[in-house]
Design a protein that fits this description.
Family: Belongs to the peroxiredoxin family. Prx5 subfamily.
Helix content: 25-40%
Order of helices and strands: EEHEHEHEHEEEEH
Strand order of the largest sheet: 2-1-5-4-3-8-9
Catalytic activity: a hydroperoxide + 2 glutathione = an alcohol + glutathione disulfide + H2O
EC number: 1.11.1.27
Structural class: alpha+beta
Number of helices: 5
Shape: globular
Mean pLDDT: 94
Keywords: Antioxidant, Oxidoreductase, Peroxidase, Redox-active center
Function: Thiol-specific peroxidase that catalyzes the reduction of hydrogen peroxide and organic hydroperoxides to water and alcohols, respectively. Plays a role in cell protection against oxidative stress by detoxifying peroxides.
């Protein structure tokens, strides 16, 4: 499992772009993780799946609500990562009103999730391989904080915890 001080693994994540511009076409676009994190402070939170109860009622809304505070504290971007395709993540972002606040980053084949060692096998529950619930603060591609939830819990990966860590690190 990835740990504080480690560099994020090479690879890419996809985002559904609603409005064409800045070199991005409409629809799914792929982003190189190393390039997207270079010189930036990124708050990343990951969760098991789009439109699932805890993810939709607590996890994403918390980051949407705290987006301005996170950015005022020095976070350049907030990413929500889930093992879903970019179309689903785009639809979920519209539903959660994340535009301009949280980038909904798809890890459709779980390549990033497996590379950071935070995969969760929910095959027995009909969901396949998903991501564990966690949050991390990443500066210039290096993990500065990491908060991994115990199975079935939502206690340490929310926006309030990460915001307190960002402020403490400032």
């Amino acid at each position: 499992m990835i740990k504080v001080g480690d560099k994020l693994p090479a690879g890419s994540l996809q985002e559904f772009i609603e409005v064409e511009g800045e070199g991005c076409s409409l629809g799914p676009n792929s982003f190189d993780i190393s390039q997207a994190t270079a010189g930036k402070t990124i708050a990343i939170f990951a969760l098991p799946g789009a439109f699932t109860p805890t993810c939709s009622v607590q996890h994403v809304p918390g980051y949407v609500a705290k987006a301005d505070e996170l950015k005022a504290a020095g976070v350049d971007e907030i990413w929500c990562v889930s093992v879903n395709d970019a179309f689903v993540m785009g639809a979920w972002g519209r539903d959660q009103k994340t535009a301009g606040k949280v980038r909904m980053m798809a890890d459709g084949s779980a390549a990033f999730t497996n590379a950071v060692g935070l995969a969760l096998d929910l095959t027995a529950r009909g969901m396949g391989v998903r991501s564990q619930r966690y949050s991390m603060l990443v500066k210039d591609g290096i993990v500065k904080t990491l908060n991994v939830e115990a199975p079935g819990k939502f206690e340490v990966s929310g926006a309030d915890t990460l915001l307190a860590q960002v402020r403490a690190a400032a």
